[in-house]
Every structure is written in C-alpha cells, then in structure tokens.
Design a protein that fits this description.
alpha/beta; Rossmann fold; 3-stranded mixed β-sheet; 31% strand; globular; binds glutamine
Length: 202
C-alpha cells in the first residue's frame, strides 16, 4: 500500500492508551474510536484489555455493534487482547448471557479461566511470528481458548500453574487475539505482527 494505515483503538473502556503507544511505536497512525463516524475512518481496530461485559454494553450503546460486525464480516483486520479476545470469540463460556460474541475467530473462550485477579501471573512464552526470543506475557483475570475451529492458527500456548496446557494466542484470517496484554510491556512484537497483517490487507 502507498499510504500509512490508520489503526483504531476501541476507546470505550480499558487500556486504550497503552495500545495506542505500542501502535505508534510500530509506525502507523492511531485513532481512538468511540463513535460510528470515528470507526468509519480507520483501516483496522484493536479491542483493548479491560472488561468485556462493560465493553459489550458500551458497543451497543454507542451504535458501534452493527458497523463492527459488518466490517469484521468484510475482513477488516482486528486484534483483541484479553477482554478484546473475549469479544472476538464465537462462543464465550462463563460470560454474561447478554454479552456479545462478535465471532471474528472461530473459538470457544473461557472468561476468567486462570482464576481471579489474585491469580494474575506472568510467563515467558513462544509466540509464532514474534520469535526467536520468548515474550513476557502478562495475564490479568485472563481468558484461555478452550477450542478452535479448523481455520484457526494457534500462535501460542502456556502451561498453567496447575500444569494444564492452554491456547493463549490465535489468528484466523485478518483477526488475531491474545489472552495476555502485550500493551502492558515495552515489547511491541505482537503489535508489529498485527500491523504487518494490516499492511497486507489495506
Ligand atoms: N476478565 C475480563 C473480562 O471478562 C478480562 C480481563 C482483562 O482484560 N484483563 O473481560
């Protein structure tokens, strides 16, 4: 492409500024998205970490739900971290019955799967496309991916404190999601991977 992509960050709730900072470091233009008009102006969207049930309500309240669903179906690149991953799932376990599952990625996600806030942890993990060094991943009341459809590429797994092996990063077409928060570290490799997807798409 011959122009700089504009990557939106859904700015209804959550760690918006941290994502914006990481994206700026990846050399794209960044725009906060709170309204359908702002959403029209972006080439891609990041759904931040925060609280998926709150973001779900605010998406509907702001009139963003239908346009978002439409553009996801049209193949717009999207990346969700933690709460954002939950929003992008096709099925949510342990969610609220009224929370939205955008279905951008064919996956079953279990909300708060690693436990409560006090069970938050960090781990050094391998992430496909971000190697060769491992990446420090921060998990805060994080979901894990319980199962994925055939079209989904698993980018990373983690062994939980109780010894289970869980999927924590995935990609399907132009949609990517992580259980952890790369925006909370100074390592921008996950954002760079997403930006590469955006550049290919735009
Ligand atoms: N547990 C939160 C949710 O359900 C996600 C936590 C996070 O984004 N750190 O949305």
């Amino acid at each position: 492409m011959n122009r700089r992509p504009i990557v939106g960050v859904l700015a209804l709730q959550g760690d918006v500024r941290e994502h914006a900072r990481a994206l700026v470091a990846c050399d794209v233009d960044v725009a906060e998205v709170r309204t359908p008009a702002q959403f029209d102006g972006v080439d891609a969207l990041v759904l931040p970490g925060g609280e998926s049930t709150t973001m779900s309500k605010l998406l509907a309240f702001q009139g963003l739900l239908a346009p978002l669903q439409e553009r996801i179906s049209g193949g717009m690149p999207v990346y969700g971290s933690c709460a954002g991953m939950i929003l992008l799932a096709s099925t949510i376990l342990d969610g609220r019955t009224d929370q939205v599952a955008l279905g951008a990625i064919d996956m079953v996600v279990r909300r708060n799967a690693f436990g409560a806030q006090v069970d938050s942890f960090e781990a050094d993990i391998d992430v496909t496309g971000c190697g060769p060094e491992t990446l420090r991943a921060v998990f805060i009341r994080a979901p894990w991916v319980e199962s994925v459809g055939e079209q989904v590429e698993v980018l990373s797994r983690v062994v939980t404190p109780t010894g289970a092996d869980r999927i924590v990063a995935v990609r399907q077409g132009a949609a990517m999601a992580t259980s952890f928060h790369p925006e909370l570290t100074h390592d921008v490799r996950v954002h760079a991977l997403f930006v590469e997807m955006v550049r290919q798409h735009v």
